[in-house]
C-alpha cells in the first residue's frame, strides 16, 4: 500500500500510471488513498481524486471499487459538504449512462454495417459458420458482447447509489433523483425484472426506516419536504409500472402509497391524488373489478371538480360520463348467492381493504355489503351532482337501462346510443391531470348489461319464447354468448330461465311450488277465495264463526309446525354436511397445492442456486483470465514503451493466447533486466573513477580551508571573551547600587514578616484545633455506631440461635413422639397377633380332642352292642361329675397358660383325659328310645355353623358329632 504525504501526490501518480497504460495500478493507488484513515478531513483535492476514481471505475467496470470509494467519501463529506458527494455521484451515473448508450450505439452501428456490407448475399460465410457454432444471431451476439456488460454495470451503479444514499435526511433529494433515473432506465429499455427488484429495494429501505427509529440522520416523514419526495418516488414507480403493464407491481405500488399516507396521517397534494386515482382506474379495469373502477372514477371526478379550477366544461363532461358509464358497467347482481361463510368473510375483508385504498371510510353501523355496491354507487352519483354534468346520450342510456321497462324495444333503442357513445372521448386539455378518456372501452360491458336487462324484463312478461325471436331482440351477441350470460345470471339468482334446444324455446321463471313468484300468486288466490267465501256465506254469529274456523286448527297447526321444523333441521344438516365436505375438499386441495408449490419452489431454488453458482464460477474464471491477459498485455506494452520500439501487432484477439502473451512479457522483462544490470555495472565503475579523482583533487583544498577557519575562530573567541567580562562588571556595579538603596527598608520588612507569620500561626492553630475536635466527634460517633451495630448483631445472632435451638427441640420432640407411637403400635400389633395365635391354638386343641374322642367312640363300639354316643345325651340330663371336672380343669389350663403347647403334648394330654374319663357303659338295646332322642328343633338349632358353645362332655360341639353319628347309622 503506497503512502503519500499529500493527496495531490496520489492524483499525480495516478495520472502518470494512466498515461503509461497501467489503469489498474492507478485505480489501486487512488483506492488506497480514499480508504486510508489519514485523509478523513474534506478538501477540494479529494473531490478531484473522486472524479478521477469514478472515471477509472467506469472505464474498467469495477463496481465493487466504486461502491467502497463512495462509501468512504460519504463518511468524509457527509457532515461538511454534502453537495460534493452529490456532484461525484451525478458524475458517476452520467459516465455509466454515457458508456451504456455508447455501447448500444456501437452495437447498432455494427449491426447496420453487417446488414449493408453485401446487398446480394443474405449472410456472410463467417456469419453462417458463427451461427452454426454458437447458435446465436449476429445481433444477439453483439448485444451479449458489447451492450450487456455495460447495461449490467449501469444497473449495478443504480443499486450502489441507492444503497449508499438510503435513509439519510441530508441525501433525500439525491436519493429521489437516483430512483427516478433508475425508473426511467427500466422504462426506456423495458427491463421488467430489474424494475421489480428496484421496487423491492425501495420498499425494503422504507421498512428499515420504520424499523430502526434510533438511526443517525434518519429522515423525518412528518416533514412536508421529506413526505413529498417519498410520495413523488412512489407515484413515479406507479406510473412506470402501468406503462410496463406490470399490474401486480402497480397494485403493490398503490398499497405502498396508501401505507405511506396512513403512516404519516397527512393528506397529500390534490395533484398527486389525481394521478393516484387515475392509475387506480386503469388497474381495476384490467383486473375486471368494475365496481372498484367506478368508485375510483368517482373520487377522481370529485377531486377534479373541487381543486382544478382551470378544467373546461367539455373535459368535466367527459369525466362525468366516464364515471356514470363505469357505474353502469358493474353487473346488476352480486356474487353472494350460494357462497360459503368463508367466501363471504373474504369478500368482506376485501371490501374493507378496497374501500380504504379508494379513500372511503367504512361506517361500522352499516353493513359492509352496503358499503361498496352498485345501488349505493348510483345513489351517490345522483347526490354528488354527477348526473348534471354527463352528456345527453349517456343520460338517456342511464334512463333506459335503469328506469324504463321496454322488454321488446330496449336493445333496439340502446344500440344507437352505444354507437354515439363509442365515438365520444379523446385527449383532455393540459389543465387536467388525466391525459385521455375513451368511452368506447365501456361498450362491451354496456352491451352485456343491456342483454341482462332484456332477459330480466322478458322473464317478467313471458313464460316462454322462441330462440329466434330472442336472438332478434338482442342484436349485440350470438345466442351462444347470450346463453353464457344467462347461465351466469341464473347461477347468482338474478332471474330464472331454461333453454330447451330440442323445442327451440327459452322458458322463463321457476314452476316450483316453493318459488317466490308462485307463492305470491297462491297467497293472492287464497285471499281472494277467502273473501269470496265470506261474501257467499256471511257469518251469523261471532261465536259460530270462530268455532267453524278454529275447528281442528290446533292439530293442523301443530302437525304443520312439526313438519316444518323437521324439514328445517334436515335442510340445516344437509347444508352443514355440504359445507363440511366443501371445507374438507378445499383444505385437502390447499394442502396438496401448498405441498406441490413447496416442492416446485424447492426445486426451483436448488436450480437457481446451482445456476448462480455455475455463473459465478464462470464469471470469476473469466475475470481471472481477463485480468491475467490484461496484466500480460500491460507488461508487454510497458516493456515495448521502455525499449522505444514500434508496437507489435500481437494484440489481434484470438490469434495470440494468454500463455503466449505471458511468456512474451516475461522474456521481455528478463531481457530488460539483463540490459539494466549491465548498464548499472558500467555506470557504477564510471562513478567510482570520478569519485576517486574528485577526492584526490579536493584533499589539499579542504586542509587549507580548515587552517584558515581555525585562525578566524580563535580571533572571534578572544573578542567575545573580552565583551563578556565587560558586561559582567557593569552588572555587578548596578547590583551594588540596588542593594544600598534597599538596605534601609530591611527593619520594616522583618517587622512585617513577623506579624504575618504570627497571624498565620494563630490561624493554623485555630484550624488545627477545630479539625481535631471535629475528628474526635466523628470518631466518637463512629464508635457509638459500631457499638450499636455490634449489640444489634449479637442480639440478632442470639435470637437466631434461640430460634434454631427451639426448632431443633421441637423437631426432636416430634421425632420422639413419632417413635413412641410407632413402638406402641408395634406392641399393640404384637399383642393382637399373640391373642390371635392363642385363639387359633385353642381351636386346634379343641379340634384335636374332638377327633380323638370320635376315634375313641368309633373304636370301642361293636356290631352287637353299639355304644350310644355322648352327643345324643339330652341337655336336661346331668353330666357326670368326673367328666365335667376334667373338662373344667382342661379349659383353664389351656386358657391361663398363654403359651404355645406342642402337638405331642396336646395329644398326650387328650389321651390322659380320655383315660381319666372312661366312656359311658353301653346300653343293652341297639336303638335308643324314643324319649331319649333329641327333638328336631334342637338338632336344627345345634346344626348352625356359627354356634361356638362347648359340648357337655369333652368340649366337642354337638352338631358335628350328631351329624357324624347320624351318617354312620345311615351307612
UniProtKB/TrEMBL annotation:
Residues 316-513 form the PCI domain. Residues 882-897, 957-971 have a biased composition (Low complexity). One of its GO terms (molecular function) is translation initiation factor activity. Its main location: cytoplasm. Residues 581-614, 807-971 are annotated as: Disordered. The keyword Cytoplasm applies. SMART domains: PINT. The keyword Protein biosynthesis applies. Residues 93-120 form a coiled coil. GO terms for biological process: formation of cytoplasmic translation initiation complex; translation reinitiation. It is found in: Cytoplasm. GO terms for cellular component: eukaryotic 43S preinitiation complex; eukaryotic 48S preinitiation complex; eukaryotic translation initiation factor 3 complex, eIF3e; eukaryotic translation initiation factor 3 complex, eIF3m; multi-eIF complex. It holds the Pfam family eIF3a_PCI_TPR-like. Residues 807-856, 920-934, 941-950 have a biased composition (Basic and acidic residues). Keywords: Coiled coil, Cytoplasm, Initiation factor, Protein biosynthesis, RNA-binding. Component of the eukaryotic translation initiation factor 3 (eIF-3) complex. RNA-binding component of the eukaryotic translation initiation factor 3 (eIF-3) complex, which is involved in protein synthesis of a specialized repertoire of mRNAs and, together with other initiation factors, stimulates binding of mRNA and methionyl-tRNAi to the 40S ribosome. The eIF-3 complex specifically targets and initiates translation of a subset of mRNAs involved in cell proliferation. Belongs to the eIF-3 subunit A family. This is Eukaryotic translation initiation factor 3 subunit A. It comes from Albuca bracteata.
Amino acid at each position: 500500500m503506497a503512502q503519500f504525504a499529500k493527496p495531490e501526490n496520489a492524483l499525480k501518480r495516478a495520472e502518470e500510471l494512466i498515461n503509461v497504460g497501467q489503469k489498474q495500478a492507478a485505480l489501486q493507488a487512488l483506492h488506497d488513498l480514499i480508504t486510508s484513515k489519514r485523509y478523513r478531513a474534506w478538501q477540494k483535492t479529494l473531490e478531484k481524486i473522486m472524479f478521477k476514481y469514478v472515471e477509472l471505475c467506469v472505464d474498467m467496470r469495477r463496481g465493487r471499487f466504486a461502491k467502497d470509494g463512495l462509501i468512504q467519501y460519504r463518511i468524509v463529506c457527509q457532515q461538511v459538504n454534502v453537495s460534493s458527494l452529490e456532484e461525484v455521484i451525478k458524475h458517476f451515473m452520467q459516465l455509466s449512462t454515457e458508456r451504456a448508450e455508447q455501447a448500444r450505439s456501437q452495437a447498432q452501428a455494427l449491426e447496420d454495417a453487417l446488414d449493408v456490407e453485401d446487398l446480394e448475399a443474405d449472410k456472410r460465410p463467417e456469419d453462417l459458420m458463427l451461427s452454426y457454432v454458437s447458435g446465436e444471431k449476429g445481433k444477439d451476439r453483439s448485444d451479449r458482447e458489447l451492450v450487456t456488460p455495460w447495461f449490467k454495470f449501469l444497473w449495478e451503479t443504480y443499486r450502489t447509489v441507492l444503497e449508499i444514499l438510503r435513509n439519510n435526511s441530508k441525501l433525500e433529494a439525491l436519493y429521489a433523483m437516483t430512483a427516478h433515473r433508475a425508473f426511467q432506465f427500466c422504462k426506456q429499455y423495458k427491463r421488467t425484472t430489474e424494475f421489480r427488484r428496484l421496487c423491492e429495494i425501495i420498499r425494503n429501505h422504507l421498512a428499515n426506516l420504520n424499523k430502526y427509529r434510533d438511526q443517525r440522520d434518519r429522515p423525518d416523514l412528518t416533514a412536508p419536504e421529506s413526505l413529498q419526495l417519498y410520495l413523488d418516488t412512489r407515484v413515479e414507480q406507479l406510473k412506470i409500472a402501468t406503462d410496463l403493464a406490470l399490474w401486480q407491481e402497480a397494485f403493490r405500488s398503490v398499497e405502498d402509497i396508501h401505507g405511506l399516507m396512513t403512516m404519516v396521517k397527512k393528506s397529500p397534494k390534490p395533484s398527486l391524488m389525481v394521478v393516484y386515482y387515475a392509475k387506480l382506474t386503469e388497474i381495476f379495469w384490467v383486473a375486471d373489478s368494475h365496481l372498484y373502477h367506478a368508485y375510483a372514477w368517482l373520487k377522481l371526478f370529485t377531486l377534479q371538480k373541487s381543486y382544478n379550477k382551470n378544467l373546461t366544461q367539455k373535459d368535466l363532461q367527459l369525466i362525468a360520463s366516464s364515471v356514470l358509464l363505469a357505474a353502469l358497467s358493474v353487473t346488476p347482481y352480486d356474487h353472494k348467492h350460494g357462497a360459503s361463510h368463508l367466501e363471504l368473510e373474504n369478500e368482506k375483508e376485501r371490501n374493507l381493504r378496497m374501500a380504504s385504498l379508494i379513500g372511503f371510510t367504512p361506517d361500522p353501523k352499516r353493513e359492509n355489503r352496503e358499503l361498496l355496491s352498485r345501488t349505493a354507487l348510483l345513489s351517490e352519483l345522483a347526490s354528488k351532482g354527477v348526473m348534471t354534468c354527463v352528456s345527453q346520450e349517456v343520460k338517456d342510456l342511464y334512463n333506459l337501462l335503469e328506469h324504463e321497462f321496454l322488454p321488446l324495444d330496449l336493445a333496439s333503442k340502446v344500440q344507437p346510443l352505444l354507437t354515439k357513445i363509442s365515438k365520444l372521448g379523446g385527449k383532455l386539455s393540459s389543465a387536467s391531470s388525466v391525459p385521455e378518456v375513451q368511452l368506447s372501452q365501456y361498450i362491451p360491458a354496456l352491451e352485456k348489461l343491456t342483454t341482462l336487462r332484456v332477459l330480466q324484463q322478458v322473464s317478467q312478461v313471458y313464460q316462454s319464447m322462441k330462440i329466434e325471436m330472442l336472438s332478434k331482440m338482442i342484436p349485440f351477441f350470438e345466442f351462444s354468448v347470450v346463453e353464457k350470460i344467462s347461465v351466469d345470471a341464473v347461477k347468482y339468482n338474478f332471474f330464472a330461465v331454461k333453454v330447451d334446444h330440442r323445442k327451440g324455446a327459452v322458458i322463463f321463471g321457476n314452476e316450483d311450488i316453493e318459488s317466490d313468484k308462485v307463492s305470491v300468486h297462491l297467497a293472492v288466490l287464497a285471499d281472494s277465495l277467502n273473501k269470496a267465501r265470506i261474501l257467499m256465506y256471511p257469518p251469523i254469529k261471532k261465536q259460530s264463526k270462530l268455532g267453524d274456523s278454529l275447528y281442528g286448527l290446533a292439530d293442523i297447526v301443530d302437525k304443520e309446525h312439526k313438519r316444518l321444523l323437521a324439514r328445517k333441521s334436515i335442510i340445516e344438516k344437509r347444508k352443514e354436511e355440504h359445507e363440511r365436505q366443501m371445507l374438507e375438499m378445499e383444505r385437502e386441495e390447499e394442502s396438496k397445492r401448498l405441498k406441490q408449490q413447496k416442492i416446485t419452489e424447492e426445486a426451483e431454488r436448488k436450480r437457481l442456486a446451482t445456476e448462480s453458482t455455475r455463473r459465478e464460477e464462470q464469471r470469476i474464471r473469466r475475470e481471472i483470465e481477463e485480468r491475467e491477459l490484461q496484466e500480460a498485455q500491460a507488461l508487454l506494452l510497458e516493456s515495448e514503451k521502455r525499449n522505444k520500439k514500434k508496437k507489435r501487432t500481437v494484440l489481434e484477439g484470438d490469434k495470440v493466447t494468454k500463455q503466449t502473451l505471458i511468456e512474451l512479457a516475461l522474456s521481455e522483462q528478463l531481457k530488460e533486466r539483463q540490459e539494466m544490470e549491465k548498464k548499472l555495472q558500467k555506470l557504477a565503475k564510471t562513478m567510482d573513477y570520478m569519485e576517486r579523482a574528485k577526492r584526490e583533487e579536493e584533499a589539499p583544498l579542504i586542509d587549507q580551508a580548515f587552517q584558515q577557519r581555525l585562525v578566524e575562530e580563535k580571533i572571534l573567541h578572544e573578542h567575545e571573551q573580552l565583551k563578556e567580562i565587560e558586561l559582567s562588571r557593569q552588572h555587578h556595579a548596578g547590583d551594588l547600587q540596588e542593594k544600598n538603596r534597599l538596605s534601609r527598608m530591611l527593619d520594616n520588612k522583618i517587622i512585617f514578616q513577623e506579624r504575618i507569620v504570627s497571624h498565620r500561626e494563630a490561624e493554623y492553630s485555630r484550624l488545627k484545633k477545630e479539625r481535631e475536635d471535629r475528628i474526635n466527634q466523628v470518631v466518637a460517633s463512629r464508635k457509638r455506631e459500631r457499638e450499636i451495630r455490634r449489640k444489634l448483631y449479637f442480639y440478632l445472632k442470639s435470637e437466631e440461635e434461640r430460634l434454631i435451638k427451639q426448632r431443633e427441640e421441637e423437631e426432636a420432640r416430634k421425632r420422639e413422639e413419632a417413635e413412641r407411637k410407632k413402638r406402641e403400635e408395634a406392641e399393640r400389633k404384637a399383642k393382637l397377633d399373640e391373642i390371635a395365635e392363642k385363639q387359633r391354638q385353642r381351636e386346634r386343641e379343641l379340634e384335636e380332642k374332638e377327633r380323638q374322642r370320635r376315634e375313641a367312640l368309633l373304636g370301642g363300639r361293636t356290631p352287637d352292642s353299639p355304644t350310644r354316643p355322648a352327643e345324643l345325651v339330652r341337655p336336661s340330663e346331668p353330666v357326670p361329675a368326673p367328666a365335667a371336672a376334667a373338662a373344667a380343669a382342661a379349659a383353664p389350663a389351656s386358657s391361663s397358660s398363654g403359651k404355645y403347647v406342642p402337638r405331642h403334648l396336646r395329644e398326650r394330654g387328650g389321651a390322659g383325659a380320655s383315660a381319666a374319663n372312661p366312656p359311658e357303659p353301653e346300653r343293652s338295646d341297639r336303638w335308643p328310645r324314643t324319649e331319649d332322642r333329641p327333638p328336631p328343633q334342637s338338632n336344627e338349632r345345634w346344626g348352625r355353623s356359627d354356634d361356638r358353645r362347648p359340648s357337655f362332655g369333652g368340649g366337642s360341639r354337638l352338631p358335628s358329632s350328631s351329624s357324624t353319628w347320624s351318617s354312620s347309622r345311615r351307612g
